[in-house]
Amino acid sequence: MMKSPHPYEQYTEQFAELQAPLACLNLDLLEQNAQEVLRRAGAKPVRIATKSIRSLEVLRYVLTLSPRFEGIMCYSPWEAAALAQAGFADVLLGYPTMDAAALAEIARFSSRAHRTNDITLMADGLEQLQLAEAIGREKGACFAVCLDIDMSSSLYGIHFGVRRSPLRTVEETLRLAEYVRRSPSLTLRGVMGYEAQMAGVADSVPGAAMMNAFVRHLKRRSGKDIQARRSRIVQALSAEGHELAFVNGGGTGSLGFTAADASVTEVTAGSAFFNPALFDHYAGLKLYPAASFALPVVRVPKQGIYTCFGGGYVASGSAGKDKYPRPIWPEGGVLLPNEGAGEVQTPVKYPAGGSAVSLQSGDWIWFRHAKAGELCERFRELHVVQGGVRLGTWATYRGEGWCFG
Ligand SMILES: Cc1ncc(COP(=O)(O)O)c(C=O)c1O
After folding, report:
1. Is the Cβ atom of 277 under 6 angstroms away from ligand 1?
2. Beta 345-349 vs 305-309: how paired, if at all?
3. Closest CA relative to residue 245, chosen from 128, 124, 115, 129
4. Going residue by residue through the chain (405 aa), what tens digit of pLDDT does each one get?
5. Residue 271 Cβ < 6 Å to ligand 1
6. Ligand 1 neighbour 75 (Cβ under 6 A)
7. Is the Cβ–Cβ distance between 270 and 50 less than 8 Å?
8. Which of these, 79, 71, 76, 75, lies nearest to 48 by C-alpha position?
9. Angle CA 218–221–225, to nearest 5
10. Who contacts 153 (Cβ-Cβ below 8 Å, separation ≥6)?
11. Up-side HSE of residue 325: CA atoms within 13 Å toward CB?
12. From CA 388, how far away is CA 11, in angstroms rounded?
């Protein structure tokens, strides 16, 4: 694990009068992460992925850090409407929707008269466009649309990428773009080609040299494929007279690669700001653990094993040990293989011996979540720290009473 420049020991003092479980956001580390995002994104603007943040105040704060942080990529249509209502501009819904009621809500922000709070819908098939078109017609709205192009590669019989969009070819994309052009209720605004296999697969995992080498090889091969497909599609759209306001790509793990692609006009980043544990092992990515959470030790079943209250905040994705929260302080703690992170209780084991850790009930153990925004589904607020001072709390989506699934 990358060594944090922040002395976690200080947290114990700073948070002494509070009760755990609690979640903490260190703004000094978040700002360093923001600088790393900007550096890796070259000169391109960066759209902020809300799914990896899930706090209005954090989103607002990140947007103040640089004029190159521009626009939002959200994950739910109801969230898109709520963000527009809260004053966020240029909200791209990163995933398609078939929710007619949510589209009717979004229509309020999508009439031609309300250009400032525009929401852009994501689509990769006719069925999503037809639904949006029907709602648009009914509500007198014109929905901006972004087409999602599949960026996965087929290599050595492996599907290297995610199963999301069926749109792969120039012809398929032009057909949908033409459908949008002909509809008075739709307008084509952008194209997204998200290369999940570059952005979300670690390639520098300690103790896995062979696997790392293989993943990097796959990434090199897939990278050529991605650049060729994305630029072919963007050029074809332009040749057919489609004017794109943006071509979006990338995520935290692929910022350098994606920003270097001339056909991409903006990159997306979200996880980088909190830097959860899954992002510790990407070659060249230098991030700091800005988000963490503390659990109280409530019982000591055996010397060296401390059982905390809470902790079963396991991350989504293919189930595996890497999705568990990771104990980070005091250093040296590990979860028990038979219990993992429990629904109500989480035991953490420390090795016996010379520098043995000695805790008692009431002490805290600090953790990092494996993913970023999911942490905020477990806590109503983040305790914000800057310059060694506790600034107060910022509400998470959960604290706002928001739950978008
Ligand atoms: C469409 C899309 N873009 C970008 C990202 C990258 O987000 P992050 O920077 O949090 O990894 C994701 C993550 O899953 C995504 O689904």
Report:
1. no
2. antiparallel
3. 115
4. 444 444 567 888 889 899 999 999 999 999 999 999 999 999 999 999 999 999 999 999 999 999 999 999 999 999 999 999 999 999 999 999 999 999 999 998 876 554 545 899 999 999 999 999 999 999 999 999 999 999 999 999 999 999 999 999 999 999 999 999 999 999 999 999 999 999 999 999 999 999 999 999 999 999 999 999 999 999 999 999 999 999 999 999 999 999 999 999 999 999 999 999 999 999 989 999 999 999 999 999 999 999 999 999 999 999 999 999 999 999 999 999 999 999 999 999 999 876 678 999 999 999 999 999 999 999 999 999 999 899 999 999 999 999 999
5. yes
6. no
7. yes
8. 71
9. 125
10. 160, 161, 197, 218, 221, 222, 225, 226
11. 32
12. 9
Amino acid in position 204:
S
Q: What's the CA-to-centroid distance between 296 and ligand 1, angstroms?
A: 32
From residue 238, give the alpha-carbon distance in Å to each of 109, 129, 175, 184.
Answer: 27, 21, 14, 20
Beta carbon of 252 within 6 Å of any ligand 1 atom: yes
Task: List C-alpha distances in Å: 41 to 150, 249, 256, 265, 370.
Answer: 22, 11, 6, 11, 23
Which residue type is seen at 324? Answer: Y
94 ligand 1 Cβ < 6 A? yes
Q: Out of 36, 37, 38, 51, give the residue to mutate to test ligand 1, the one with the largest number of ligand atoms within 8 Å of its CB.
A: 51
Predicted TM-score (pTM) of this structure: 0.95
Q: How close is the Cα of 52 to the center of ligand 1, in Å?
A: 8
Is the beta carbon of 269 within 6 A of some atom in ligand 1?
A: yes
Two tokens, residue 66: 């640089």
- Ligand 1 centroid–CA 250 distance in Å is 7
Residue found under tokens 């947290």: 11
How far apart are the CA of 116 and the centre of ligand 1, in A? Answer: 24
- Which residues is 334 bridged to in the sheet? 349
Q: Is the CB of 268 under 6 A from ligand 1?
A: yes
Which tokens sit at 224?
Answer: 């050529």
Cβ of 278 below 6 Å from ligand 1: no
- Centre a 10 Å sphere on the Cβ of residue 65 and count the other Cβ atoms it contains: 17
Cα(227) to centroid(ligand 1), Å: 18
| Percent helix, strand and coil across the chain, each to the nearest 5 | 35, 25, 40
